[in-house]
Amino acid sequence: MCTSIHRHSLHCILPPYILSQIAENGSPEMRAMAIRSLLVDPTIRIVRASTAGPVAGEIARRRAAAGNILAPSPLRTIRDAGGEPEAPGATVVRREGDGPTGDVAADEAYDGLGATFALFWEAYRRNSIDDAGLPLDATVHYDQDYDNAFWDGTQMVFGDGDGELFNRFTISLDVIGHELTHGVTEKEAGLAYFNQSGALNESISDVFGSLVKQRLLGQTAEEADWLIGAGLLTPKVNGSALRSMKAPGTAYDDPVLGKDPQPGHMDDFIRTNQDNGGVHVNSGIPNRAFYLAATTIGGNSWERAGQIWYNALLDPNTRANTDFAGFARVTIDVAGRLYGSGSAEATAVTEAWSAVGVI
């Protein structure tokens, strides 16, 4: 589990149950890597018992400050940790407007930050993570063979992977979008990173991480793969990604990593004290609800389906302790306000939550 000594929750893309499986089933080298990651992560983050989004006045202030900007652009800075467990790294390797560096990880991080900024501005008129032009920073080549990527409340940090099980963590665009969306959630609803609210926090990051990728590739809901972390697993692993929003529980089935444990229906909801109450596991349920809603609505998922989820995240009825059923009610209400209570969009959202057993 990832932790941090600063006031922000730190969210890692690789769930601790995967590292635990590697520590149990891997080769001596793999076990050593996993155990080291499990030991390193708690030294860099302490997850808050609850988080609170900004008060209404602060949100209004940010909206007003950003409202005068006609066409904002990202302000990106990429640093290189040089294999040291320090973030930010000391060396700046690329700033906003600079050309490619030739370092694949640095350039992928730069492009991924830009694609995420573009989705939130062009689709939802959100000016960066905080809606007030927050600079986007990232550190690459963090630690030695580090198997994770995380948002620490101020920047993105990427490990290079171990090369045996995991590739570099900048390789997957939806991972970058996922981690940055944790910053959006923290600024808005502040969903507490425990139990169902924490699983919603993870799911919302998966949703918008997938939308970043779909929009950049120009894919419709039907064309998208709905995988989170595609490309992260090496050919030695029997799997396609870390998670599948379309079919939770099917992303991988490997002798070392184990079998993808995500449920896709409330009948299979996992009650556990691990992973902050199963935040990475049970996120499969709201993930599938979004997939069902988006594919039923059709077209580009970042448009109508994404608008519903984004506005639900900003809705004052989505609070720090909102559970699956509470968020379902908000999305249904938002769909009705945006498109009409009897609209195809509102019906699709209602049926999607019903199909996964939430309502």
Domain count, please report it: 2
- Any idea what the shape is? globular
Mean pLDDT: 90
Low-confidence spans: pLDDT under 50, at least 5 residues? 3-8, 42-63
**Largest sheet: spatial strand order:** 1-5-6-4-2-3
Q: What would you call the structural class? A: alpha+beta
CATH class of the largest domain: Alpha Beta
For the secondary structure, the number of strands is: 10
Region (Disordered): 76-101
Function: Extracellular zinc metalloprotease.
EC number: 3.4.24.-
Subcellular location: Secreted
Sequence-ordered SSE layout with sheet pairings:
Layout: E1 11-12, H1 16-25, H2 28-44, H3 56-67, E2 76-80, E3 91-95, H4 104-124, E4 136-140, E5 149-151, E6 156-158, H5 173-187, H6 195-217, E7 227-228, E8 243-244, E9 253-254, E10 258-259, H7 275-278, H8 284-297, H9 304-314, H10 324-339, H11 344-355
Parallel strand pairs: 2-4, 4-6
Antiparallel strand pairs: 1-5, 2-3, 5-6, 7-8, 9-10
Helix pairs in contact: 1-2, 4-5, 4-6, 5-6, 6-8, 8-9, 8-11, 9-10, 10-11
Organism: Sphingomonas xinjiangensis
Region (Disordered): 76-101
EC number: 3.4.24.-
What's this entry about, in short?
43% of the residues lie in helices and 9% in strands. The protein has 359 residues and is of the alpha+beta class. Strand 5 (149-151) and strand 6 form a beta hairpin.
